[in-house]
Design brief:
By secondary structure, the protein is α+β, with helices and mostly antiparallel strands. It is built from 14 helices and 6 strands.
Amino acid sequence: MTYRIFGSELSPYSVKVRSYLRYRGLAHEWIPRSPAVQDEFQKYAKLPLVPLVVTPEGEGLQDSTPIIERLEASGGVLAPADPALAFLSALLEEYGDEWGNKWMFHYRWRYQPDIWSTAERIAVQMMGAQGPLAVAQARGAVAERMTGRLGFVGSNAVTEPLIEASFKRAVGLLETHLATRPYLLGGRPSMADLGIWAQLYEAATDPTPGALLRTTSPKVMAWVQRMLAPKDEGPFETWNALAPGLMPLLKREVAALFLPWSTANAAAIAAGDKSFETALAGARWTQEPQKYHARSLAELRRKYAAAAGAPGLAEVLGEAGCLPFLA
């Protein structure tokens, strides 16, 4: 009963699924995507994206959150028993997946040392078997293609200061929160950990954000290392215990940036706009709409509707400023 993960060490969503399988103790094979395995990949994949998980029964699964939720349905361990805390975990996971990805992608493809470091690693994965010349040629092509995609996550001259300030603020808040617990919700990992960790793991492997993390945030770096093979170290904590660390993250990041951005993005897609502009925490934000994320926001609202009656949830989201975007 072995799962196969077609992925990349440079894909946050691939390492997120691998970390989950390690935590669950589910036997799996890690298969770096390359031309050598393309035929096998296409046999199961509906989209040309990693991760692709092939189940022991031969079913192909894609998209990290649905993959994990599918596997959780057969023996879930990630969700706290408190439904309010379980929803907050899902909200923070989505924040990591969709907003945290902006940090990772911006630093990775904005600064020259990061561009060449990442392009080299991708080229080796894809073309290493064909020799150094093939790797060198592929590296240049990867760098050109990926720097041209910065706009897809909203990284541009206008938004750069906000993205970098968000990264530094979030890391600082996490550094304080993780000083007294091994995981975001206490003694064991959750969906929140997987979503945010995957982006920071990738950032930690790149020169510019990696240097920031290593010089300012030892607790975050210890968590990044821990999440490579997470294990239970205690129970989930209560919201009252977690609130001093997580409420500032909800207020200053999720409610101030992520959810208003999500709402503006969805409105632009619904209107058929080719670009949109909005104000986030008093700063100007402009980009092309991200089509996938409109579905992501709809799913987050569906989850909130299902959890809306959970004791204390509306009060927490109201205090944080999240409620108007979800209700």
